[in-house]
């Protein structure tokens, strides 16, 4: 499928792109960010489906009401002129039509897309997303969860007005948008996880009390807890890493507690890697993965998908540390010394060959754009 994604440089856009690169690497993707907007018509031309994620979330009332409509109008014009687009999927909000300037603008944008494109035989799916959260959300912009994460790390306490809330991880939202590209036209309402504002804050505080002092992990058996924990620890990366472990030595030798998980087991495995050899070169959409070098020296390198900067940690078994891989960062480990290294790996879930949540992409690709499926 040939896809054009507006808002590709935003929070949801990044999550959608890493999902496409992982699960649909053969799709052709035109990623349209803010700097690309003047070329909207050119980039939409040739697409089968437009995934319209671009939007205005925080602004003056008039801009919230009118700005999202203006964006929709430009997308409709480009899709109609393309001669190829058969469907537009609109990333809308459950707040559409709630009487606020934002809700009024989002509803009007959906109505404009539907009515305008119907005249050109282009179907529209209006995806009403609940509150989103996930890795690399912007505090005070994308989600109250991102704001809470920022506050808990800074040691601050926000003012909280508790209420029930439905939360959907950005990967769930990305899948709902991809499903809409192939489903029936109309309005769809993806389901979120039912929780409350106070419960989210309490969970984040619990993560922080466990994780920061010693690298202890919370119970990750529930997908929502795992996704919230991944959101939290992504905000710690890279400043918090590597996590220092505390070896205990006596005349018998040395003991190192490498993983302490409160309530769920996961899977532990050990590998040896010969000098100069690299393991890994992959990323995950949900999995929590920890590296601990127990003997020898190595470089652990990571790169956030669709960026160029590589973060690297030089580690040694003489002073063991833990590095936990953030979601959406491709990572590897290279034996850098003159002898074979021994590394312990831990993941929060048992390996499932039918659903491994492991997607191959080099940390230092020769051609990044080609390697990550972007055309």
Automatic annotation (TrEMBL):
<dbReference type="InterPro" id="IPR001509">
    <property type="entry name" value="Epimerase_deHydtase"/>
</dbReference>
<dbReference type="InterPro" id="IPR011051">
    <property type="entry name" value="RmlC_Cupin_sf"/>
</dbReference>
<dbReference type="InterPro" id="IPR014710">
    <property type="entry name" value="RmlC-like_jellyroll"/>
</dbReference>
<dbReference type="InterPro" id="IPR029303">
    <property type="entry name" value="CapF_C"/>
</dbReference>
<feature type="domain" description="NAD-dependent epimerase/dehydratase">
    <location>
        <begin position="5"/>
        <end position="160"/>
    </location>
</feature>
<feature type="domain" description="Capsular polysaccharide assembling protein CapF C-terminal">
    <location>
        <begin position="249"/>
        <end position="359"/>
    </location>
</feature>
<dbReference type="Pfam" id="PF01370">
    <property type="entry name" value="Epimerase"/>
</dbReference>
<dbReference type="Pfam" id="PF14667">
    <property type="entry name" value="Polysacc_synt_C"/>
</dbReference>
<dbReference type="InterPro" id="IPR050177">
    <property type="entry name" value="Lipid_A_modif_metabolic_enz"/>
</dbReference>
<protein>
    <submittedName>
        <fullName>SDR family oxidoreductase</fullName>
    </submittedName>
</protein>
<dbReference type="InterPro" id="IPR036291">
    <property type="entry name" value="NAD(P)-bd_dom_sf"/>
</dbReference>
């Amino acid at each position: 499928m040939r896809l054009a994604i507006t808002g590709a440089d935003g929070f949801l856009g990044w999550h959608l792109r890493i999902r496409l690169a992982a699960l649909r690497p053969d799709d052709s993707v035109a990623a349209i960010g803010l700097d690309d907007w003047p070329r909207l018509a050119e980039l939409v031309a040739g697409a089968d489906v437009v995934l319209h994620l671009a939007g205005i979330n925080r602004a003056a009332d008039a801009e919230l009401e009118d700005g999202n409509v203006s964006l929709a109008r430009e997308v409709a014009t480009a899709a109609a002129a393309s001669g190829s687009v058969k469907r537009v999927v609109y990333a809308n909000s459950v707040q559409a039509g709630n009487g606020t300037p934002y809700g009024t603008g989002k509803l009007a944008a959906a109505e404009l897309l539907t009515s305008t494109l119907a005249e050109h035989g282009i179907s529209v799916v209006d995806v009403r997303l609940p509150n989103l959260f996930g890795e690399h959300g912007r505090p005070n912009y994308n989600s109250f969860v991102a704001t809470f994460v920022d506050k808990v790390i800074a040691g601050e306490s926000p003012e909280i007005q508790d209420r029930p809330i439905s939360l959907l991880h950005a990967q769930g939202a990305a899948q709902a948008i991809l499903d809409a590209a192939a489903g029936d036209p109309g309005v769809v309402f993806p389901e979120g996880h039912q929780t409350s504002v106070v419960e989210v804050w309490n969970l984040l505080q619990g993560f922080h009390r466990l994780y920061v002092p010693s690298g202890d992990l919370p119970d990750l058996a529930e997908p929502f807890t795992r996704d919230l924990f991944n959101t939290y620890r992504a905000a710690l990366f890279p400043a918090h890493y590597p996590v220092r472990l505390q070896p205990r030595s006596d005349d018998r030798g040395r003991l190192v507690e490498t993983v302490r998980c409160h309530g769920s087991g996961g899977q532990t495995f050990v590998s040896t890697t010969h000098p100069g050899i690299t393991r890994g070169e992959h990323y995950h959409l949900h999995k929590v993965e920890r590296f601990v070098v127990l003997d020898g020296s190595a470089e652990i390198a990571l790169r956030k998908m669709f960026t160029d900067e590589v973060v690297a940690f030089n580690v040694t078994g003489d002073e063991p540390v833990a590095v936990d891989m953030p979601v959406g960062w491709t990572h590897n480990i290279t034996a850098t010394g003159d002898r074979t290294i021994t590394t312990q790996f831990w993941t929060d879930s048992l390996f499932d060959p039918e659903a491994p949540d492991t997607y191959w992409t080099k940390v230092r690709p020769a051609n990044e754009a080609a390697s990550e499926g972007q055309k």
